[in-house]
Specification:
Blueprint: H1 2-22, H2 28-41, H3 51-59, H4 61-64, H5 66-74, H6 76-79, H7 83-115
Helix pairs in contact: 1-2, 1-3
Length: 118
């Protein structure tokens, strides 16, 4: 499993390098995710090569939210004047996202029913 983690970290590092060298408007970690997706999609990298490490990271994903949460709590004094606006934005964007997701899923279900796909 160490080799799998190393492979994921190398892909992450390459994504960061690509973003920095080519001055992409995306953060390096997002570039790394796109790179990983493309490598998997075009079968350059087999899922089996990183599957165990990826599953481990997914199972422990909540741990990765702790540092930003602590930082937000630590920076509360900076956010308190705009807290109501932030909460409104979060609530509205959540409902918009849920609505759009539901509509897309319904469109996909309708499409599959018309085509006879299960």
């Amino acid at each position: 499993m160490i080799n799998e983690f190393m492979l994921i970290f190398v892909i992450n590092y390459v994504g960061i390098l690509i973003s920095n060298v080519l001055h992409f408007p995306l953060p390096g970690t997002i570039t790394a995710l796109l790179l990983l997706f493309l490598l998997l999609q075009f079968k350059v990298l087999k899922l089996e090569k990183i599957e165990n490490a990826a599953n481990f990271l997914l199972l422990n994903m909540t741990l990765f939210f702790m540092p930003p949460t602590v930082k937000i709590i630590d920076s509360y004094h900076l956010l308190e004047k705009d807290l109501v606006k932030i909460i409104i934005i979060i609530v509205v964007s959540t409902f918009v996202t849920m609505g759009i997701t539901g509509k897309v899923v319904q469109m996909m279900i309708d499409y599959r029913e018309r085509k006879g796909i299960k």
